[in-house]
């Protein structure tokens, strides 16, 4: 079976609200299908920010500019210090690297800085199982916001939990399956 395509993911969103399938994307449009595509794009960004093997680059070298700052661009969603810089507390602020220990954007020199990065990928470039997970997440959110059916939401949550449990995460950013995180949260006792 071939991997899910972006149009398949949009159609999953439409199916969640009992809408007809489409045969072409309406990127940037105002139709219900265009709204569904935006949910797929949002879910793609959400999952890419968590860091998976397909979108995590380890110890990527960055050279600071003349101001000793590092601009990551719009494709990097998350960073962590790596390699010889792993002792530093480097984080993202906007699209730049910020030294949280020193409270500044300047890296202090032109020396290369090493970072683990989670990068935004196009839907088609995701791992096939991650595409499934993105599609299910988008369908759940889309259905939840447009229809709000508790029964439908429960079924979609169950499908997402199964896919989520099977998807390997890259340990770089300490990601655990979404539903494992929710299950490990302490439950409040009723009085």
Structure description:
- There is one protein chain.
- The protein is of the alpha+beta class.
- The protein folds into two domains: 6-51 and 123-175, no CATH class; 56-119, no CATH class.
- It has five helices and five strands.
- The chain has helices at 6-16, 32-50, 128-146, 150-166, 178-184, and strands spanning 56-62, 76-81, 90-93, 96-99, 113-119.
- It has a three-stranded antiparallel beta sheet, covered by helices on one side. Strands 3-4 form a two-stranded antiparallel ribbon.
- A hairpin with a 2-residue loop joins strand 3 and strand 4 (96-99).
- The protein starts with 5 loop residues before the first helix and ends in a 7-residue tail after the last helix.
Strand content: 5-15%
Tally of separate domains:
2
What's the total helix number? Answer: 5
Low-pLDDT segments: 175-191
Main sheet: strands, sense, barrel: 3 strands, antiparallel
State the total count of DSSP E strands. Answer: 5
Helix content: 25-40%
| SS-based class | alpha+beta
SSE arrangement, N to C:
HHEEEEEHHH
Strands ordered across the widest β-sheet: 1-5-2
Overall 3D geometry?
A: elongated
Distance between the termini: 51 Å
Radius of gyration: 19 Å
- Could you state the oligomeric state of the chains shown? single chain
User: Mean of residue pLDDT?
Assistant: 84
